[in-house]
Fold this sequence. Notes:
mainly alpha
Amino acid sequence: MKVKRLWMMMGCLILGYGxxxxxxxxxxxxxxxxxxxxxxGQGKLIGPxxxxxxxxxxxxxxxxxxxxSQSVIKSGDxxxxxxxxxxxxxxxxxxxxxxDQIRAIISYIAENSPGGPGEAATGGVALPAGKPLxxxxxxxxxxxxxxxxxxxxxxxxxxxxxxxxxVHYSHVMxxxxxxxxxxxAYSRLGEAGIKALLGSPPFPAMKQAxxxxxxxxxxxxxxxxxxxRVDEHKTAQPPKNxxxxxxxYGLGGALVLLVVFGGLWTRNKQSSVNEKIYQRQIRSx
Length: 285
């Protein structure tokens, strides 16, 4: 009897440690990856609130969607397609999680969803809100503008936003076209969404660029304030035409080259004929 009870206690301990590990891994993965776009019980962010998602969709469907949302959408799945359209066709990055890792994330979501055993303690899960944008000053907007276009360096040495992104704003030089135009980012993502993306980038290229160069809270706030201002004034921005500017710079460069090469040619040319050939001909007479 004692031996049987001992085995039962050991089994419970092993099971308890296994569950604790699974929950710990799920929490770790959710807070490393998912929390940039999703909350648990705190409302919509860039993507849907995941509270009780395990009750809305089968586990097998969630695993497929987390691994490659676009594959599920392209298969014609009506639920996935509706989500894609509802959230401004924002592409969820593919993930190389194992099935067990995704199950651990689902378990963590279930535990912290309304009615779950952890919900009373956490009240849901989301990134810290930080200072509200209503407190932004013109100086914050100006700082964000300088950070966006690289006239002020980011504290940890990350690349300026306009290396890849552009905004239509008369006070900012044209940016890159490698990633999405951010002129209406505030309308699409909202304050919380932009702060979440900047604080914990989910997209592969952005994650790689800032993994060792994270933005500070102050920089995130300033950039969010700037993007809100850009969005607010987007309809009043005149279309930019760089044709004349490019032509002027090209013409100026051509004139500079003509002056430089003309000067070199004039310096090397001493007379109208080659002096050596002329003197040889004279001696031969």
